[in-house]
Write a structure and sequence with these properties.
The protein has about 600 residues and is of the alpha/beta class. The protein has two domains: about 300 residues, ABC transporter transmembrane region fold; about 240 residues, P-loop containing nucleotide triphosphate hydrolases (Rossmann fold), CATH 3.40.50. About 60% of the residues lie in helices and about 10% in strands. It has 23 helices and ten strands. A six-stranded mixed beta sheet has the order 6-7-8-3-9-10, with helices on both faces. A four-stranded antiparallel beta sheet has the order 2-1-4-5, with helices on one face. Strand 7, helix 20 and strand 8 form a beta-alpha-beta unit. It is elongated, with a radius of gyration of 35 Å. The protein starts with 17 loop residues before the first helix and ends in an 8-residue tail after the last helix. The structure holds adenosine-5'-triphosphate. Adenosine-5'-triphosphate (ATP) binds next to helix 14. The site of adenosine-5'-triphosphate has 13 residues, from helix 14.
């Protein structure tokens, strides 16, 4: 689980361009561009059809109505009905054209995000809160799909409709047209002001959704701690505070929307009112026909929705731009580098074991100037040997083991597997050579068999039962209702700590790896089970080069030799008995006594 939240970044309007953020979606939209353009064209035709209606009205008023021609009136009414039906059908076709491809765009972006998250280094996951990642994969992608379905098309459609509408208005009477044009300049200024303010609150709201998701996720995953320590109230307070913050931000968004909506409604209405007064005067003076005035006002009213909706469409576009920005923040993070140079069939035939050469390591997020966790570690685990790694808490044992499967990269030095530098190996090959089991065993929502066989490609039932028996797990698995097919709950929480640890160990040994890295794999077992696992593990370790983090003498006794890690360096290497004699620190660590550290 992530240890800290990525600081909420608020983008100031100057720092990002809405258009540039949205343009980054182009590679995903490209494959469906034909459908989108067709849909936009259909929507433009449908929208412009609505502008024909006032012209039919003009013809009706100045023609059949003035002349009392009943047949002409019926004909005009039928014409209007047909126009209305065609407009409705065309909008339906547009909807049908975009629905399926846009669901595909959203699914494709989500799949890319998931794939990318799997390939990002552990250091990235250490830094980012999981809720922030979840909200990017859900809410943000939904906002992007909504943008592609509506604002993207309708900003274009409404823009064209407004231009055509104004052309029709000017063709009918240019003085009245000028009156309707008057609010355009203030509306453009107010829209850009709105956009700047809305960008900031949108970013804040979407980041707060991520923070809230993190709190909910942590409360659900940590429900045992929450209940065990009676922390309902403090968790509920943390949730309420964040929910309150989000509510405030959403209200700020609503206020801005209400404001722009009012502006976009009021200014055109004022202009239409002024045009009505002026037009009526012109009709009274005989300078304008009644039909032209009716057509003019009907056109102006037909333009109401395209103009009014601009504020709302801009708001949705802003949210989508923020969502795209948040999405690409993750997608732009560099993936784990693979082999610097692909070794042609470099199989490391010569068995020379595992070498750590002058390894220095700093965590990327460690405070500047802090000493390295590992400082010039030189260690050799001979082929087929089991080396126990012992050291005080926080001495860097887990960190050193994590470097072998390249979960972290050393700041300096190199690691060799059978003489081959691991940075020159494709990761896939490295991870097929090295198996790991960590102290905190993670299981997935899958069957026990699937969880164990995750440790090898194409493992058989035989491999599974062998691994379960090495980990002394066959008895408890056999007692489960469906044996190895039993589904374990999320994170394996339906099993005991010791049971989970044994399954994680089975997963590590199932593929008979050449190199095995075990981080205190027996810590949750009772002494009897531990003895049985150790006996079976000894058999496995005979053919394997293994590095085992150990805290207890019983685990150390599995090993041929022991390395003592102290102050980021290897302080001593030897057999258990040699170190007991020669190193006071080792003797103290193994004694389990609680008095002062001898260092
Ligand atoms: N992701 C991280 N970012 C920054 N520092 C870290 C991170 N993980 C561990 N550390 C620090 O690195 C040091 C070594 O940690 P490590 O987990 O390797 O110790 P350890 O010897 O395995 O301890 P233990 O026996 O308690 O498991 C500790 O001081 C720890 O605080």
């Amino acid at each position: 689980m992530p240890t800290e939240h990525v600081p909420t970044k608020e983008s100031s309007p100057g720092r990002r361009s809405t258009v540039r953020a949205l343009l980054r979606l182009w590679p995903y939209v490209r494959p469906v561009r034909a459908r989108l353009f067709t849909a936009a064209f259909v929507a433009i035709v449908a929208s412009c059809l609505s502008l024909v209606i006032p012209l039919v009205l003009k013809w009706l008023v100045d023609g059949p109505v003035t002349a009392g021609d009943r047949a002409g009136v019926w004909f005009g009414a039928l014409y209007l009905l047909l126009l209305g039906i065609t407009e409705a059908v065309l909008f339906g076709v547009r909807r049908w054209l975009v629905a399926r491809p846009l669901a595909g765009v959203e699914a494709g972006m989500r799949a890319d995000l998931y794939r990318h998250l799997q390939r990002l280094p552990i250091a990235f996951h250490d830094r980012w809160a999981s809720g922030q990642l979840l909200s990017r994969g859900t809410t943000d992608l939904m906002l992007i799909r909504l943008f592609l379905a509506f604002p993207l098309t309708f900003l274009l459609v409404n823009g064209v409709t407004i231009l055509v509408g104004y052309a029709v208005l000017f063709a009918q009477d240019w003085t009245l047209g000028l009156v309707l044009l008057a609010p355009v300049a203030p509306m453009v200024i107010l829209c850009s002001l709105f956009e700047r303010k809305y960008t900031v609150v949108t970013r804040r709201a979407q980041d707060q959704v991520g923070d809230l998701t993190t709190v909910v996720e942590e409360s659900v995953l940590g429900i045992r701690i929450v209940k065990g320590f009676g922390r309902h109230r403090s968790q509920a307070d943390a949730f309420r505070n964040l929910a309150e913050l989000l509510r405030g931000t959403e209200l700020a968004k609503a206020r801005l929307l209400a404001w722009i909506w009012a502006v976009m409604t009021l200014l055109p209405e004022l202009a239409v009112g002024a045009a009505l007064v002026l037009g009526t005067v012109q009709v009274a003076d005989g300078q304008l026909s009644a039909g032209t005035l009716v057509a003019f006002l009907a056109t102006a009213l037909a333009l109401r929705w395209p103009v009014e909706s601009i504020g709302f469409l801009l708001a949705m576009s802003q949210e989508a731009a923020t969502a795209a920005e948040r999405y690409f923040e993750v997608m732009d993070e560099p993936e784990e580098e693979d082999a610097l140079r692909e070794e042609a069939g470099g199989t490391g035939e010569r068995s020379t074991g595992l070498h750590f050469e002058n390894i220095t390591f700093h965590y990327p997020d460690a405070p500047p100037g802090s000493p390295p966790v590992l400082d010039g570690v030189d260690l050799h685990v001979r082929p087929g040997e089991t080396l126990a790694l012992v050291g005080g808490t926080g001495s860097g044992k887990t960190t050193l083991t994590a470097l072998v499967p390249r979960l972290h990269e050393p700041s300096a030095g190199r690691i060799l597997l059978d003489g081959e530098d691991i940075t020159l190996m494709p990761r896939e090959r490295l991870r097929s050579l090295v198996s790991v089991a960590f102290e905190e065993p993670t299981l997935f929502s899958a069957s026990i068999g699937e969880n164990v066989l995750m440790g090898t490609a194409g493992g058989t039932d035989e491999d599974l039962s062998r691994a379960l028996s090495v980990a002394q797990a066959q008895d408890f698995v056999g007692r489960l209702p469906e044996g190895a097919d039993t589904q374990v709950g999320e994170q394996g929480l339906s099993l005991s700590g010791g049971q989970r640890q044994r399954l994680a160990l089975a997963r590590a040994v199932v593929g008979r790896p050449r190199f095995l890295v075990l981080d205190d794999p027996l810590s949750a077992l009772d002494v009897h089970t531990e003895a049985k696992v150790e006996a079976a593990l000894r058999e496995v370790l005979r053919d394997t080069t293994a590095l085992v983090v150990a805290h207890r003498p019983s685990t150390v006794l599995l090993a041929d030799r022991v390395a003592l890690l102290s102050g980021g360096r290897v302080a001593a290497v030897g057999t258990h008995h040699e170190l007991l004699r020669e190193s006071a620190e080792y003797a103290w660590l193994m004694s389990g006594e609680r008095h002062e550290d001898p260092r």
